[in-house]
Structure formats: structure tokens, C-alpha cells
Predict the structure.
Amino acid sequence: MKDVFGSNMCDTSQIYQCDFHHPQLNLAGNGKIRERPEADFVAHFAQVYQSQFLQIHSRTTRKETLFVREVPVSGNGIADLLVLSWAASIAPSDSFSLPLTEVASTIRAFEFKLSNWRNGMMQAHRYKYFSHASILVVPKIKLKAVKPQLELFKTLRVGLWGFESETGSITCLYTPRPKQQIIPKYANIALEQISQTIWS
């Protein structure tokens, strides 16, 4: 695995996307790729969240970030968005380099649903196997309908956010504190997948 720092340092300002065979693409007709409004929703959210990360997580000491979309984690589905964050005190230099699996990063996993938030909540719950915090993002207009189930989200420790694509507004209704993954080895699988994406 190549280094995340030093001469092979990745561009943390970029939003990466895993390059893998996506089953939805098989459903395209007449050689045309189907429109994916949810994918557009995710892409816009990622850009806005990246620009507002330090504002949203104002108390974090892990201010360096890496954004990667559509990360497949064996047995746990495909995370719509993974965000890694680590301490800014880990400065890149020619003499200091670490692979992603050795950087003490916080992994936040995001699932997005334009509808059927219950399925999204359960999918986000699965992401806890490899992430420190898992969050479901729905259109902001849908939050009112989901809010009565907020205690369920808290019980499952799945975050609930709303996003208004037109204005770029993120509403953080519930954000769980990062906690050790249920099965840490799955985190390494996710990090290895991200490494392959970054340096492919």
C-alpha cells in the first residue's frame, strides 16, 4: 500500500469515487445510463459538507479530511460516502509517512435516501460495523416526517441529517459521537478500498 503522506500524498481537497462495477448501471436501456438523482444529491452534499466540515464539527481536533464516494465494504453494502478525518498535527513530510490503515482517523459513513428512510436507516446501521459514526441524510423537506422516529435513531446510534440541495443547507438533527467500530477488521477493508481508489 502506498503512503498517504510524503511524496505520495493524496489530494485531500478532491472528492474521490471508488471505481467498481455498479449493478445499477446494468439497468440502463438502449445503451443509455439511467438518471441517478440520488447520486446527484450525494455529490452536491459532499461538496457542501466538505466546505462546512469544520463548522459542523467545531469541537473536533481531527481537522484534516478525505472524502470518498461509493465505497464497497464486503458484507456491509456500499457506503454512499465515507469521510475520514485525522489530527492536523500529523504533518506531511518526506521523512514521515503512514498508510491509511495506520493513521488514527475517524471514519464517518453516510447513507442517502430521497425516499424510504427506513431502509436507509437500517443500511446506515450496518455501516457501524466499519465506521465510528454512521449518518442517514434525507432531503430536508422529509425531516418533518422522520422526526417523530428520532428516539429510534438515537437508540440505534444512527445520525439523522437533512440536506436542501437548492440552498446547500445541512440540518444536523442528531449526530452520534464517534465510537469504536463493531468489527474493526471491516474498517481496514474500507481503508484498503479507499487506498486503491486514491492511488489507482
